């Protein structure tokens, strides 16, 4: 049965011609992500057995406690991407500043920058709940052979050439897009191979699931409060069901398969919400749009927002098209 399915390696080769830049580059990029994903997966899977759960004793630039696995995943992705002669810079949620690769080498012909959230949902590690990795890939805008600059990273989401995530769930999946739809690959851990299990993934236009941290309800803007009440009202196909894992990757993955909306609104104490534009929202927005869904900050398309800093946060509403449009309607009524 499995042997009939296409492997990720075969899929990359078969589809590389549709990549608008040099075809071999895409293969090298996705291959390096695939390799790092397997290494991190191996560690996540035995987290309860080895001394890898718990905090690392440090906080990241955003003041959040770093978990040991945050640091481990960050190191593995950076190491893997550094050694493949394809990436000239990496920005990570866990690093204060971007990391330049071979920046002193004038012959450095590496054209791509990668932005990553190495471990998403890390507060779920200690309790054996799904976590993920999110990645976003751009072509550098500064000339080849010169050091990368902040400009290479502060690009709008609509310039992404590829994006995706790994979900370390009941099974491990790699889901990505290069702008030609979204495909999902499931890892067979016994042989270490990803197989195409979810071709051409699509958000249903409507959904019945809303995902939001309702503990923050009293701090939400009135429009979001009203939308939540709308979801709970008995009328037509409502009430909707509430599902919130607290790992964006896992909540997004479920909503894409079943139909739903993920929301991280602004907050009376946190005027831009929590999620990071470059490492979380843009890659998820690219995937959502490629899967017939939508991603917005309540007013503007996420991928049209001009980034001003690496660790910038934005309110995030993402998922089934009609649901995102409905929450936008409620928000805009009040502002
Ligand atoms: P990270 O672990 O990379 O810091 O991201 C956690 C994010 C996201 O995955 C999740 O949906 C959200 O934070 C949960 O936040 P709350 O605990 O505030 O609901
Ligand atoms: Mn995250
Ligand atoms: Mn993270």
Automatic annotation (TrEMBL):
GO terms for cellular component: cytosol. Its EC number is 3.1.3.11. Signal peptide: none annotated. Residues 204-331 form the Fructose-1-6-bisphosphatase class 1 C-terminal domain. Keywords: Carbohydrate metabolism, Cytoplasm, Hydrolase, Magnesium, Metal-binding. Its cofactor is Mg(2+). Binds 2 magnesium ions per subunit. InterPro entries: FBPase_C_dom, FBPase_class-1, FBPase_N, FBPtase, Fructose_bisphosphatase_AS. It is found in: Cytoplasm. PROSITE patterns: FBPASE. Substrate binds at residues 120-123, 213, 244, 274. GO terms for molecular function: fructose 1,6-bisphosphate 1-phosphatase activity; magnesium ion binding. It catalyses: beta-D-fructose 1,6-bisphosphate + H2O = beta-D-fructose 6-phosphate + phosphate. It is an enzyme of class 3 (hydrolase). Mg(2+) 2 binds at residues 117, 120, 280. HAMAP family: FBPase_class1. PANTHER family: FRUCTOSE-1,6-BISPHOSPHATASE-RELATED, SEDOHEPTULOSE-1,7-BISPHOSPHATASE, CHLOROPLASTIC. This is Fructose-1,6-bisphosphatase class 1. It comes from Mangrovimonas yunxiaonensis.
